[in-house]
Specification:
mainly alpha; elongated
């Protein structure tokens, strides 16, 4: 039986109720946020583990997030739940490697930590690629060349400017415009989650950086 009426909609109250032992509120929160599980699995899935097992791991992660969330941590529940689901999925992937790939890795002289680290690096690379694909073509080209994101050596802004037929200052502006877009939560959520930079404080810092650059840009006009 629910500790509080079933019609309440305040998520903070729902969480407190679920953490106090209310099965109805717990189930309601699980259903309310279940989409997070499928989104995380879809973004993390590499085909090395059974999809059903990863979904089950995601449910466990969401359940743990509901029971342990503390608003004083400085992040929203969805951000905290995303991290908990992702971490549980990583554990399932590790277990899959232990069961299926550990002997092969041992023969190759690789430790499980190396394999997992390689997998995580690949996830970061995929997240960066997805973000870049959302940029306008010219801005994407500037970022790729400036940071050497396609295997080539990073280029100086003046070199990029010569190729594009614009000044070094214009290239710098384009790079900063691209970085402002890449820092937006809608684009950066996966990468921030992978890099443990998805707390409320981290987002505030990013907003301050973006706002500072935008103010300076308006001042030059």
């Amino acid at each position: 039986m629910s500790i509080l009426p079933n019609f309440h909609t305040n998520q903070a109250v729902d969480l407190a109720c679920a953490q106090a032992g209310c099965a109805v509120c717990l189930e309601g929160l699980l259903l309310q946020h279940k989409r997070l599980i499928y989104v995380v699995v879809r973004r993390q899935y590499t085909g090395k583990c059974d999809y059903v097992d990863l979904i089950q791991a995601g449910w466990i992660g969401l359940w743990q997030a509901i029971l342990h969330f503390d608003a004083g941590r400085g992040c929203t529940f969805s951000t905290y739940a995303w991290r908990a689901i992702r971490n549980q999925i990583w554990l399932e992937v590790e277990r899959g490697w232990k069961k299926e790939g550990w002997l092969e890795a041992a023969r190759a002289g690789e430790s499980l930590s190396v394999i997992v680290s390689t997998w995580q690096q690949e996830q970061v690379r995929q997240a960066v690629t997805e973000e870049l694909a959302c940029l306008p073509e010219r801005l994407r080209g500037v970022v790729v060349q400036a940071y050497g994101l396609e295997g080539q050596a990073p280029m100086h802004l003046s070199e990029i400017g010569k190729q594009m037929g614009v000044s070094r200052e214009r290239v710098r502006q384009m790079r900063n415009e691209a970085l402002v877009l890449l820092r937006l939560p809608a684009l950066s959520i996966r990468l921030r989650s992978l890099c443990e930079r998805d707390s409320r404080q981290a987002y505030r810092q990013v907003r301050q950086v973006n706002d500072g650059w935008l103010r300076s840009r308006r001042g030059r006009k």
